[in-house]
Write the structure tokens for this entry.
Amino acid sequence: MIRRPLTEITLKLEDLQEYETYRREQANNSSISNEMQEDTPRSLAGGTKTIEEIHNRIGYAPKKKQGPSTV
């Protein structure tokens, strides 16, 4: 394996300001999307799904157990 020198990363003030701006925009967008989710019906908003719905979606059909085994 070839050893190489460490890469130096410098943080500039402009980078920090850009990051803060980006973070604020993401926070604003998430609060807006939360408000929109409250207005949408639960089935469209990705609410919890039952095990049966999940099995139907992935095509899983478990075999029903038929009483005690006679093996």
Observations:
- The chain has a mean pLDDT of 79.
- The longest helix spans residues 13-39.
- Residues 28 and 34 are 10 Å apart (CA to CA).
- The chain is about 50% helix and 0% strand.
